[in-house]
# Entry
Amino acid sequence: MNARAQTTPATWTTEAVLALYALPFNDLVHRAACVHRQHFDPNAVQLSTLLSVKTGGCSEDCGYCAQSARYDTGLTRQGLLEVEQVVEAARAAQAQGATRFCMGAAWRGPKDRDLAVVIDMVRAVKALGLETCVTLGQLRPGQAERLKAAGLDYYNHNLDTGSDYYDRVVSTHSYEDRLRTLNQVRAAGIKVCCGGIIGMGEDRRVRAQLIAELASLDPPPESVPINLLVKIPGTPMAQVEDLDPLELVRTIACARITMPRSYVRLSAGRRALGEAVQALCFLAGANSVFYGDRLLTTDNAEVEADQRLFAKLGIRPEPVQGRRCAGAD
Ligand code: SAM
Ligand code: DTB
Ligand code: SF4
# Structure
């Protein structure tokens, strides 16, 4: 094994992560699997279910997104849902086995009056005994504290890509804007869910930069969603070349090695992957998925297919987050 890649640096640089990517595939996956077993039960997967609580019509120009008002993606817009509709969906998710319910809104950021409704949603979903997560875009001062007071467990806000590639993906807000919101979330005592998307035409260096930048957040995010681009007709990224699925496995492995205690979520894009690639991702340290037939605006892997896959692999849905496998080698 490459000696440079074997040492664990205090802060991960792009170069150090690139050295991980460059390892022989079997060495990389083996190393990631060992790290995974040191910190987690390797046969447990955390299940989160998504719901879009406000859909489409977003002012931002994120080049991958079905919900930007700038692209004609054929999406039907939907204003903010009623709290009762959200609670009904959360109950259904819980009955299917999800432990976390993630509510997403297509906003640059929430207006205070909209935030008040989301806060009611958080309280109601939390009262069911589910963990709560929201992704609402950029926060203004004081908004994270209001969410925390409502009992919010996680805030999702992705870096999306390496900082060098950010302006190729979005022009209406900056990488620094993303970091500012992440700092506000942290300062309010909310757990951070932060990851990115691969397969947007970036090269491996950009992917390594994204992983290094995520791992260098202090502390690293508790939850790291790795999304494979879902190509949305009408968006600037509809025509990018498909990424080699083994590059996704390598990315998961790099995330696991650099963020050993974080949940690494094999996120959007699972429909395009066969069972074997998903199995490799779990071997490489993925221990969370989005579970449920829909993501935000697109279809997810089907629940029945997931249940079959978990049974084949001997994977158990994790009942409560935070369980560590004591004494695992
Ligand atoms: N508006 C908020 C924001 O931008 O943070 C929240 C919603 S946004 C849809 C949440 C995340 O979903 C994005 O940051 C991106 O990482 C991911 N995402 C959106 N569209 C995607 C796609 N087509 N393929 C893969 N991931 C996607
Ligand atoms: C994340 O990293 N991925 C989720 C969630 N956070 C909000 C969203 C995936 C969206 C996939 C495309 C869609 O359904 O619109
Ligand atoms: Fe809007 Fe979020 Fe989509 Fe960007 S990713 S266009 S901010 S909904």
About this structure: The radius of gyration is 19 Å. The chain has one domain: 30-317. Residues 321-329 have pLDDT under 50 and may be disordered.
